[in-house]
Amino acid sequence: MRVFNLYTRFFKSVVFIGLVILMASQTGYCQEKKEIHIENANHYKPSKDKKTDRLLGDVHFLHEGVNMYCDSAHFQSENDRFHGFNKVHFNQGDTLHMYCTLVKYLGQNQLAKARRNVKLVDKKVTLTTDSLDFDMEKSIGYYNYGGTLVDSANTLTSDIGQYYANENLFVFSHDVKLVNEDFTLYSDTLKYNTVTGRVFILGPTTIVTEDGTLYAEDGWYDTETNIAKLKKAAELKQEKHVLRGDTIIYTKETGEGRAFGNVFLEDFDNHMIITGNKAIYNDIAQTALVTDSAIFRQVSEADTLFLHADTLRALPDTIPDERIIRAYHNVRFFRTDLQGKCDSLAYLTNDSTVQMFHEPILWGEGNQMTGEQIEMRRKNATTSEVYITNEAFIIAMEDSVKYNQIKGRNMTGYIYNKKLSKVDVKGNGQAAYFIKEDEESTDYVGLNTVECSNIIIRLKENKISEIAFLEKPDARMVPVEHLGEEESRLSGFVWYDPLRPKDKNDIFPLRNEEIQKKQDD
User: Fold this and answer.
1) Residue 29 dihedral angles phi and psi, to the nearest 5°
2) Does 360-490 carry CATH code 1.10.357?
């Protein structure tokens, strides 16, 4: 019984091994490549050594579904290869055709090495080069000595290229150039889909249009729709503007560009820079919208203005080449001689006018100005005017506990050499200022309080030096020793210095919102 079991096991093992060998032999047979078959030749001259035969006139080979034609050929049946000469034509499937003057075809590898006047035609694409190796099995061709690809819309040239016919994809490298009626593209490396017309950027690439240039080191450009997605050092540059970002999506037809991450927008003529993390830019309308950590900078040799808001919008002014900057929500700005805070703001580059709305506060050289609306206009390099509308209030610190104050319905302040030199108060005028015994003294006599509908006040070193009353004033002086905090403050007095931006890095509102909350509590 034991012998029978051993025999049975041995028999099964032999059968299994036999089946494996049979399957392996059948697989090898199935994978074995077919030999090159001679379909036609007008003259056939066998070689004496039986190694290389010569075929002349209307030569036609067939191998693995590929038809190959030429005027004459040297055929090595033993090595399964041939050399074709003159009017060489390869045809694979219904669409792919290759033409050349000379070819070396290796049957075992299905590799055609085409030389001289090479032309590859696949669907609507034509590639010309002087040297092309084409793998017929994988439908992949490549050249290393320069080539030109032409389709219905584009002409591409490069030193090195690969064509993946099954994927409708070309890969170009080294001195790549794409010419389109709308632009010219220069690149180090890129891919091109011959069906969609989309260019995939794989290295430093510049796209030149009549309106400007685009640059990127990654991304894509659709040559049919003129829509681009640029990444890695992305830049959209025109004569007067430049837009940069980690990613830029640009549509040429509408002129709209969307930028994300480290956005940088510069206006060369107006010396303006806007940064943030999100932007929408239109080069036709010349508009821009920047959000997410948005900062506006007005650059000058003397000083630079830094301004932050939740949203920054740049618009063209009615005056050619001038701009309007609109800032919305949590607006704060800093310049060495000027700081401000409000909910919304407009800045006009034409005359450097600043318009502040919704609880505006303006600080300058020791003065705090508040009202329902504040507008500052620059007259020349040394002179500016400030217009404060409704509930106008100017406060200047005399010392840590004493404040000089001017209050009225509306005010006009005149600034000369960055210092407030004169204030015109129109309507409900009030002034409260401390008086010393004399100019040299450090001791204060008292607080002089004046009420008059319209007042003209002159200041020297931010201190009231002269007051003119246009109507009969109501004045009184309270000695210092009789002054309490309430008596030394005009109604509506609030000292906002804790909210004042201290430097260019202090224009973001978070810290100041916390301070305001503590004050309110």
Assistant:
1) -65, -40
2) no
